Amino acid sequence: MQTAAETLVAFLAAQGVTRAFCVPGESYVAVLDALHDHPSIDLVTCRHESGAGFMALADARLTGVPGVVLVSRGPGACNASIAIHTAQQDAVPVLLIVGQVEARDLRARAFQEIDYSRMFDGVAKFVGEASNADQVPELLARAWAAMLTGVPGPAVLALPEDVLAAACTRAPLAPVVASDAAPSPETADRLADLLRGAERPIVIAGGDLDRPGGREALLAFAERWQVPVAVSFRRQDLFPNAHPLYAGDMGLSNPPAQRAAFARADLVIALGTRLGDITTQGYAFPEPGQRLVHVCPDAGWLGWRFATDLALAAHALPTLAALAHRNAAAPPGRAAWNAELRAIHSADAAWVPRTAPDGVVFANLVAALGPRLPDNAIVTVDAGTFGAPFYRKIAWKPGQRLLAPIAGSMGYSMPAAVAAALRHPGRPVICAVGDGGFLMTGSELAVAAARRAPLKVLLSDNGSYASIRIHQERAHPGRVSGTDLVNPDLAMMGAAYGYPVMVVREEAEIPALLDALVAPGPLFAVVYSSLGVVLPR
Ligand SMILES: Cc1ncc(C[n+]2csc(CCOP(=O)(O)OP(=O)(O)O)c2C)c(N)n1
Question: What pLDDT digit, counting tens, does each position of 108-120 carry?
Answer without folding.
Answer: 999 999 999 999 9
